[in-house]
Amino acid sequence: MTSAASASDYPSKDIRMVIPYGAGGPTDIIFRQIAREAEKELGVSVVPVNMTGAGATIGSRHVMQATPDGYTILGGHDNIALSKIAGMVDYSYDAFDPVARLTQTFNMPTTYPDHPVQDASEIAQYIADNPGEVRFSMIPTSTDHFFWVQMFEAMDIDMNDVRMIGYADTSEQMAALAAKEIDFTITNPACCSAFYEDGTMRALGIAHSERLDSLGEIPTFHELGIEMESATSRGIFAPKGTPQEHIDILASAFENALENEELQQRLINDLGSVPLFLEGQAYRDFLTENEATLTQAAENIEF
What we know:
Elements: E1 15-19, H1 26-42, E2 46-50, H2 57-64, E3 72-76, H3 79-85, E4 96-106, E5 108-111, H4 123-129, E6 134-138, H5 143-154, E7 162-166, H6 170-178, E8 185-187, H7 189-198, E9 202-203, E10 231-239, H8 244-258, H9 261-271, E11 273-279, H10 280-298
Helix pairs in contact: 1-8, 7-9
């Protein structure tokens, strides 16, 4: 048994990691890559199970209701809180025992190559010049929906001056952007690095305080005078009541996994996701603040 598991008989069998999104998407890829490293610490397989549907709540509800023994965990992100805020479910982060935050993927407003807006700082003036005509895509109640609301607030943009166009998923938004049915969408390197490189899409800034090494030509929001940061924060959650010893073993395994330099480089350079491990009370405090920020943003959203 490896060091992460030596303090207990746990784990003595494979661990199911429910991912409430489809195979091949950014969330799926990120969790699978990290899980492969965590397996080496745990001495058992971490088996990804894609459980999609109902705005990612089928998977989260399944884990919430699972036996709290450490053998069923959730690979989730901000959507856990967003689903409650939007009235889709009656539970949020506090329905789980948080294990650890693993990564943050910073978001970027994006347009098609020949759009007249050159960077995010020009969006407000473009809207002022074209009131009621500028089209922003989003998946209702998703992280990109909330991103736009927060950005509009940071830039003093009146939501009545823009058109919000809803789509079912990211692929539909990408197709709409390529067809110039919309002006702007939200992307991140986890889904779209290849599109930035081949010129299919043009990122207008990154909602982070530092440029990404892999996309160093893209300016930060702070450089552009936009005082806002936005990231999709992915982490591991266990059913409420999971023994603390099991949570600690899981957290240690995932922390050690993120120390692997090859994995770090894949996450940063290929997936635009920064390993930012957080556990225990610090992670619980982060989740509380995260939900409060999203709840405040929701005051300007009609569900």
